[in-house]
Write a structure and sequence with these properties.
- The chain is mainly alpha-helical and 69 residues long.
- The protein has three helices and no strands.
- Helix 1 packs antiparallel against helix 2.
Length: 69
Amino acid sequence: WRRKELKRHQRKRNQILRQYKHFNILSLLLPSIETRIGKLQEEISEIDILKAGKYWREHGEKSPGFLSR
């Protein structure tokens, strides 16, 4: 559901960028959408990191960053 929500917010942002050309209007509308997009991207990346770590542990592998140390 996060990825769907992210795409929806990105569509909304792109729609606003196409519809409004005046900087003052954009500066009012964009920050709230940008923060929501940022939070969703952060959550998605955290979940992906956890999934990747779980996969590595299940297959008995070590992280390349750990091996290079």
